[in-house]
Amino acid sequence: MKQVVQNYKSGELAVLDVPVPGCKPGGVLVRSAYSLISTGTELMKVSEAGMSMLGKARSRPDQVAKVMQSVATNGVPATYRKVMGKLDSYTPLGYSLCGVVEQVGAGIDDVKVGDLVACAGNEHALHAELNWVPKNLYAPVPDGLAPRHAAFGTVGSIAMQGVRQGEPQLGEVALVIGLGLIGQLVVQLLAASGVRVVGADPDPVRCELAERLGAAACGDPASAAVETAVAELTDGHGVDQVYLAAGGGSNQPVELAARLCRDRGRVVDIGKCRLDLPWNAYYEKELDVRFSRSYGPGRYDPEYELEGRDYPIGYVRWTERRNLACFLDLLARGSVDVEPLVSHIADFDDAVETYRRLKDGEMKAVAVLFRYPEHAGEAEEAAAPTVAVPAVKRPGGGVSTPARAAKTPVRLAFVGAGNYATSMLLPHLAQREGVELSTVVTTTALSAANAQRKFGFAEATTDLDAVLGDKSIDAVFVVTRHSSHAELTRRALLAGKTVFVEKPLALTEDELAGVLAAVEESGNDRLQVGFNRRFAPLLQEARKRFGARTGPASLRYLVNAGQLQHGSWYLQQGTEGSRFAGEGGHFIDTASWLLEADPVSVYAVAPPGNEDLQVVLRYPDGSTATISYVTTGAPGFPKETLDLVADGKVLRLDDFVRASLFVDGGVGRKRWVSSRLPKARDKGQNAELAAFIKAVRTGGPMPVPLQSLVATTAATLAVQTGLAGGAPVTLARAR
Predict the structure, then answer these.
(1) What tens digit of pLDDT does each residue of 415-471 get?
(2) Complete DSSP assignment for 443-497
(3) For the Enoyl reductase (ER) domain, which residue ranges apply (predicted)?
(4) Is-contact 220 185, C-beta < 8 A?
(5) How far is CA 510 from CA 70, 389, 513, 714, 717, in A?
């Protein structure tokens, strides 16, 4: 098998062929899928190996002391031979990976061959194709967690142990100094614990990343920004805890910790930074200085790590292995997100070149993964290779909407009356002939009363059950926060109502299945999702002029989404889904409508440190659509631009203000350009509502087939699956 090694004397890095380790009792043999490069610990070791002998001595005074002791005991010649022999040997690299159990040793009964496990240890979770891992240094990977994310288990445990040493409590404020890999994870763990976090790092990119992952504020420790943020969040008292996650030879971190920590606060050293404690500063505040020992209790204890002797949970709640399992659970539940930390994924065969680029500064990275060819593809496929596109089933004898008399108004109820409902939907309905706004339902009485007063609802209430039980109401609009859409839609369908739900229809595959189960149970498929752009008059006209296609098309859709305001509920990804999950269906639906098909696969990638996405959709006839969803663009640039290319024609849409068509006619070129819209952009809401009301009034087909709504929702969900797995996701149609 192959393994990454280093000669500490010469600094040489190599991928060597070495024997396969035996599967000893008390452990398992694991074939690596992904292993994580520690850009702090490992690069420090790699850099030290490249130093001169004097440089090595200066960087490791602890080892020099051992050498001097050996000289005193054994003499210079013997000590020299011993030291040179040790230096001139290959040593392994790596300590955090995820792989598949290939063989189970005697005494192991908690995993079996084929199970996915996360592994820890600088002697057992190496950058190697196969590793023997003792029982207390691995943990099973929860279902659905991607192997590339599970490979963060060890560094996650290091961060978690540091946080545990700080003993954070709800409502406290913490300062994290150093926003590298460990620091970024500490930020997320503290935020998940109800602690407000300030980050300090000279790198503005890392500061921005930490703020996106949960920090209240971040800044350069040399500037006043960090002190100002701490003062504002603590009313000038100072933070409750400081976590030292920085490296290097500067004493600035411990000095900053003393300056910004409150009286009798806690300072936890997680990294390996200089610790010349300023005595007066620490004494006067009586600061509690604590050290965090790697992954947790059990570390460096041979009886625990090698012999598998666990500590009783009643005496040691969080051991090394329990920390590892806990971190994996947080990853699986979405409480911690490591995907934005992945700067690069390198093939294992390119390990030497990857280390060189990191060491020379060519590659700026928070976290780098090695991908192993022998099993990486299988591991990803096992985790989440497909997203199901459920089939719509309609039993006989279901709900139907009878045609209404011409003068009988269509009676509507609104569940939710937030900004979108009151600005984009209700203004088009309030004065529409043949429509009666019957009831508005909100969770707070005042918002219901405001909507009633402004738009003329006959009634305002907080009682949803009363509305769903009112047989006189023809259709229900669900315009609430994303997390409630699927459940409210399901209940309204079961009540026999025609439903208009704003995007997204669902945030998970289970939620989507629940909606379709309600359709099957009730026979009621009268559903519309608010994908309004296909109804935009300008886009309708442009598509008509483009005409039928004879060959595959290429579509590019740039969405300059911009930054959200601080405090927006769209940022509550833990409950409301990602930003793309909430909005992306608009753009997927528009592309599918223009290409007249549903996608068959989705591939999504995102650069580290921001929310920009590139989503590539593939269609049955070979057509492709690329959606660039970006948040880092200039706010003055138009939000949406679209190009459709096929058969010698190019259709261009400029932010729903102007459209144009270029045609190569063989003997000459033709061009159509729409007139610039005299008023605000029309993105189709009015026409969409007109089509919906017509379907309710006449009992005719819904404006968009339900199977298309389901396919768009499944494709939107597949984006997150693809980001987690790092591979194209097949949209599997149910038969």
Answers:
(1) 998 888 888 899 999 889 999 999 999 887 777 888 888 999 999 998 999 999 999
(2) SSHHHHHHHHHHH--SEEES-HHHHHT-TT--EEEE-S-GGGHHHHHHHHHHTT-
(3) 50-367
(4) no
(5) 65, 11, 5, 11, 11
Q: What pairs with residue 529 in β-bridges? A: 501
DSSP state of 525: -
Give me the CATH topology for the region 410-531+685-703.
Answer: Rossmann fold (3.40.50)
Mean predicted confidence (pLDDT) in 198-221: 92
- The DSSP bridge partners found for residue 6 are 13, 91
Strand partners, 272: none
CA distances for 189 relative to 105, 183, 330, angstroms? 34, 10, 9
| Rounded-to-integer distance, Cα 273 and Cα 292, Å | 13
pLDDT the model gives residue 378:
43
What pLDDT band is residue 391 in, cutting at 50, 70 and 90? confident
User: Residue length, the chain?
Assistant: 735
* For the chain, domain boundaries: 2-152+301-383, 155-291, 410-531+685-703, 534-684+715-733
The per-residue pLDDT for range 681-732, each reduced to its tens digit, is: 899 999 999 999 999 999 999 999 999 999 999 999 999 888 877 778 888 7
Per DSSP, 658 falls in state E
For 142-197, the pLDDT digits (tens) are 988 999 999 999 999 999 999 999 999 999 999 999 999 999 999 999 999 999 99
Distance CA 459, CA 439 (A): 5
**Total-model pTM:** 0.56
Q: Which two tokens stand for residue 85?
A: 């022999």
Alpha carbon distance 217, 221 (integer Å):
12
74: Cα separation from own chain's centroid: 56
HEC readout, 270-312: CCCECCCCCHHHHHHCCCEEEECCCCCCCCCCHHHHCCCCCCC
pLDDT above 70 covers a percentage of the chain that reads: 86
Looking at residue 449, its pLDDT comes to: 84
User: Does the fold of domain 410-531+685-703 match that of domain 155-291?
Assistant: yes
For 624-645, the pLDDT digits (tens) are: 999 999 988 898 899 999 999 9
Domain 2-152+301-383 superfamily per CATH: Medium-chain alcohol dehydrogenases, catalytic domain (3.90.180.10)
**What CATH architecture applies to the domain 534-684+715-733?**
2-Layer Sandwich (3.30)
Choose among 594, 592, 569: nearest CA to 582.
569
Q: Is the pLDDT of residue 734 over 50?
A: no
The closest of 614, 616, 619 to 630, measured between CA atoms, is 614
Q: Is the Cβ–Cβ distance between 613 and 580 less than 8 Å? A: yes
Helix (H) or strand (E) holding 233: helix 225-234
Angstrom distance (rounded) from CA 459 to CA 445: 12
Over range 57-65, report the average pLDDT: 61
Residue 18 φ then ψ, to 5°: -130, 160
571 band by pLDDT with thresholds 50, 70 and 90 = low
